Amino acid sequence: MHMIICSCQMYKQFHTKQPFMLIQSTFLWKLHDLHGNETLLSDGLFLAPGGSAEPLSLKRSQHAMHCDTITSHVQMLSEPFKVFDFDFWRRPKDYRDVDLVVKVTSEGKAQAIISWWVLQLDKEGTIFYSTAPKWIKSSYRNPETATEFYGGLQWCNHWKQCVWFIPGSGLSVSADEEIIVQAVHDAVRIHYDVWRKNVPTNQEHLRNTSSGDLNLFVTPERIAILGDKDWRSAMMAVGRQCLQGRSSPLCVVVDDSLPLTVIAASLSSSSRVISLLPGLGVNGLRYLERVAEKNGFSLDQIQVLGKKAKQLTVEDTGEKVDILLAEPFYLANEGMLPWQNLRFWNERTLLAPLLSEKATILPFKGILRGCAMCIPDLWKSRRCLKDIEGFDHSVVNEIMGACGDLPDPHEGPILPYSIWQCGNFEELSEEFILMEFNFTKEIEKVSGKAMVPFSKFGLCHGVVLWMDWVMDPEESIVISTKPGPRPSHWKQGVKLLKHPIQVGNIDRNLDREHSSGVPIVPSLFASSIMLEGFFDPSNGKLDIKIDFVNS
After folding, report:
1. Which tens digit of pLDDT belongs to each residue from 403-462?
2. Strand stretches in 71-156, DSSP E
3. Do 396 and 493 form a contact (C-beta atoms < 8 A)?
């Protein structure tokens, strides 16, 4: 059982408050405690070996996240409590700290603090605008008293909550127990610490600790991926498959994959591994030094050259490359569109002269997949601004990447999003394949087409695209970045339409009617979606064209 401490911040026109509350969530625990998660997996791979100076961790700061979707993954363990007061009519203090006594209402384990804002928009205190997750209101014994802490139900992309993770496995608490939450703010950030009441703070293991001379900071999503059982199993299988039957192979890891570097070295004591680690450099080498003994490989097996792929020569390798590896994962592309990791294909091409005749190249290929979706909340949040209360806001549309209601001939960009954090969404078509990228060949132009019938009636707001990385020629190992019904740790690419389109396939939905009971008229609905995709290797850009077909 795991638990979170949730804090929410409240803004008024003249006065602001900040409450917090206790919550339990295994999902959020997996976003920060890689070492604790590895102790449950027992797969022989140690990316976070533990100790007082953990080499791979989160930065001690707040992390933005839409928490509405994790309702089923949390259990509330207290009512919200006020932390800070702010007055907007005068300059706030640059620094304040407060120790708060919080009474726990249910047994669990405190692992994080979630914060949000509530703005009071009038002097009388009758109009509030809240960024709280929807499930907060249910935590109050008397919901009528929650008005000032809880706002409306409308989803807004720009109103996220902030998650502050408590180190390690968290703090076990019991019902009616009192714990201390220390909150500190300066001019730009808020910081938290948690410990038991009546326990000396210098003895509490949850207090902030130094990570020593090496600390590779990664995102919560990356921590969760590194601790995912299926992902780790796939990476281990890739390593075993490419190393099987080889004597003293030369492996080159071209991306920022520390896991594949560790796997390639640990699964074969005779392997020689050159890891480029373009975004990590010397810190990557120091990390490998830290985890070598625990993973059972010698540092003599590994070279971190600190060079880009285009700079690598036969003088660096000393021989032809037997195995070229990547997840692919590039630190510089983290949080961006999933196909931007096709950078691997370009680097594989640059390294072609160094590859042996029967070199193994993994991943084997990439597949661009997609699905038409109803995404009303996200579409509204990216809609063009026009006249609002008499003010012309259209000048910011290009800067903010507006997509909906764009005038011709402008086209909105493809946006990186985790669909599960985009409010309401519904799939309107089956999954389809738009393009495939064959990494056994050198990089080239790729185009593809797909005609996809709609499987449901609804309002289509756009197309969601993602990459499947096929890790072996048999296509038995596939790492997919697709969205799913449960929260995931991957981003997808979202191409929003200028205007939502009514869609449906009368052949698949003969008995369907509108919710109003009015029979569906086929001619008023698009029955299929037609897509064309173009990949330009000169700049790595991928363009998508969308059209609709009526039955």
Report:
1. 888 888 888 889 999 999 998 999 999 999 999 999 999 999 999 999 999 999 999 999
2. 75-76, 81-86, 96-103, 108-115, 117-120, 128-130
3. no
Ramachandran bin of 166, using left for φ above 0, alpha for ψ from -120 to 50, beta for the remaining angles: beta
| Residue 34 dihedral angles phi and psi, to the nearest 5° | -65, -40
List strands edge to edge, sheet with 321-325: 302-304, 272-275, 250-253, 321-325, 355-362
List the end-to-end C-alpha distance of the chain, in Å, as a whole number.
53
Tokens describing residue 144: 């009528």
pLDDT tens digits, residue range 13-26? 445 555 677 788 88
Q: 285 vs 45, 260, 275, CA distance in Å?
A: 18, 14, 9
Contact between residue 501 and residue 494 where contact means Cβ atoms under 8 Å apart: no
> What pTM does this model have?
0.88
Torsion of CA 39, 40, 42, 43, to 10 degrees: -110
CA–centroid distance for 368 within its chain:
19
* Phi (first) and psi of residue 122, to 5 degrees: -135, 160
Give the CA count within 13 Å in the CB-facing half-sphere of 152. 9
Tokens 């993973």 appear where?
Answer: 295
3-state secondary structure of 394: helix
Residue with tokens 């064959």: 438
Say how far apart CA 329 and CA 334 lie, in whole Å: 8
